[in-house]
Amino acid sequence: MPSNAFLRFVNLMRAITVLPAGISLDPQEERLMLELAVHWGRGESVTVLAAMRMLAGASPSTVQRRLKTLRSKGLLMFETAAHDARVRYVVATDQGQAYFVRMGELMQQAVGRR
Asked: Whole-number mean pLDDT of the chain?
């Protein structure tokens, strides 16, 4: 049986699946955002090619479509590398950063109540 804190966190996470302006994330987009957060949290830059290999069980073309969808939703952008115009990095936008901040707040809310 899951703990009460975990259930509160799950319910709070559901609240963020709909972002401001009615933007919603599907489960693969959520997983991709979380994977990117882990890499960025370690100070790593993530190329589009590396991001395409992040979701186990999803083909690279599926992940690339999700990256483009997240870009169209304003959460991500692609920046071309200064050293090689063929290399593009996945970068969080201000709205993407706000998504991570909100997720952190929700986690603190869930854990804060015992």
From this structure: 86
